Amino acid sequence: MIVHKGEILFRQGDPGENLYHIRSGIFKVTRLHENGNIVLFNILYPGEIVPHHSLITPKECHGTATALMMGEVEVISAHTWYQELEDNPDKALAIAKMLQEKLRFMQQRIDHLTIGSPGERLELLKQWMYSYSGNNVLTDLLTQEEIGQLIGVRRETVNRLLRQG
């Protein structure tokens, strides 16, 4: 399936009837909290099968995944996925490797949050996003608020950093 920029792949609270293999494109995952705050908490990239928390057992979607650019996604029936997992125990090792890769990505993101100045963190985020999005301008993919959430600064600081760069 082709997903265009701005389209929703899955929504927070969806029952998790499908999993999604991201073939191309990048997606942001946001969560709406009871107080009305929307927080960007994950970036999905090619090769991932998501939602991560449903790779072994089903669970409703924790957030909403929105395409940041056009991408291709394979829709996988959750029922079929879990049946294959039950029928083929070796598949569990492949899932463990996928989760390990995501953990390593999250470790890298944490490292980026703890490195030097906000300007350095912004530059690392740009480099990482460019590696998956081609030459797309970061601010064409994410708002200043979302960039700030990813690098641990306020939107105003992102605005200042972008003006300086």
From TrEMBL:
<dbReference type="InterPro" id="IPR014710">
    <property type="entry name" value="RmlC-like_jellyroll"/>
</dbReference>
<dbReference type="InterPro" id="IPR036390">
    <property type="entry name" value="WH_DNA-bd_sf"/>
</dbReference>
<dbReference type="Pfam" id="PF00027">
    <property type="entry name" value="cNMP_binding"/>
</dbReference>
<feature type="domain" description="Cyclic nucleotide-binding">
    <location>
        <begin position="1"/>
        <end position="77"/>
    </location>
</feature>
<dbReference type="GO" id="GO:0005829">
    <property type="term" value="C:cytosol"/>
</dbReference>
<dbReference type="GO" id="GO:0003700">
    <property type="term" value="F:DNA-binding transcription factor activity"/>
</dbReference>
<protein>
    <submittedName>
        <fullName>Crp/Fnr family transcriptional regulator</fullName>
    </submittedName>
</protein>
<dbReference type="InterPro" id="IPR000595">
    <property type="entry name" value="cNMP-bd_dom"/>
</dbReference>
<dbReference type="InterPro" id="IPR050397">
    <property type="entry name" value="Env_Response_Regulators"/>
</dbReference>
<keyword id="KW-0010">Activator</keyword>
<dbReference type="InterPro" id="IPR018490">
    <property type="entry name" value="cNMP-bd_dom_sf"/>
</dbReference>
